[in-house]
Design a protein that fits this description.
Blueprint: H1 10-16, E1 17-20, E2 23-27, H2 28-35, H3 39-48, E3 58-60, H4 63-73, E4 89-91, H5 93-103, H6 106-172, H7 186-192
Antiparallel strand pairs: 1-2, 2-4, 3-4
């Protein structure tokens, strides 16, 4: 298993990042593990420096959020992190950096670089997916417009082809020969004079 603090371990760090309240966050136990401290020590340091952690840096999960978070991971990793006694704190990217600065340990500072890189990598990946989704939407709209135009052209073409076939059938039907009237007519007499 790769070290979570090495560049190759960024994928592992990205696995700790969750989306809660439409924000990408790392839970306190995972952040403490990465920084090499106990969760209790991390949370105490955060409480002592609460002015450095506004709500956009860190927040505590609600009971419903904790239930939802647990239900997402119960199948893939039974028993892991399910026995939490307290509702965890969630740290945003900025909160994770601030936590490293208040812990003031060499490991926390070193690992915080990889944590930030994992957040950035995740952000870039999501941005690439948004660009791809936008291009796919544009392609779908163009295809739909072409299909509608094609259907309109196809209907017009069918009408025109029907007219051409009808005209060809008329041309293929031999004309009725002109019949000479039986008997004498006044017009024929005039021609002879």
């Amino acid at each position: 298993m790769k070290d979570k603090t090495s560049p190759g371990g960024m994928a592992t760090i990205a696995g700790y990042i969750h989306v809660i309240r439409a924000q990408r966050v790392i839970l306190d136990a995972d952040l403490a593990s990465l920084y090499g401290v106990e969760t209790r020590a991390l949370n105490q340091a955060v409480k002592r420096n609460s002015e450095r952690f506004p709500s956009d840096f860190m927040f505590r999960l609600s009971a419903d959020e904790l239930r939802n978070w647990r239900s997402q991971f119960v199948m893939s990793n039974p028993g892991a992190k399910m026995g939490l006694r307290r509702v965890p704190f969630a740290f945003t990217e900025h909160g994770a950096i601030m936590a490293a600065s208040i812990l003031n340990s060499a490991r926390a500072i070193e690992v915080s670089v990889y944590v930030v890189r994992a957040f950035v990598q995740l952000r870039e990946t999501l941005a690439a997916h948004k660009v791809l989704a936008a291009k796919l939407e544009e392609l779908e709209q163009k295809t739909e417009a072409l299909a509608l135009r094609h259907d309109s052209l196809a209907a017009n073409t069918r009408v025109q082809l029907r007219q051409v076939f009808d005209a060809l059938r008329e041309l293929m039907t031999p004309p009725e020969p002109k019949r000479r009237p039986i008997g004498f007519t006044a017009q024929e007499d005039k021609k002879r004079d």
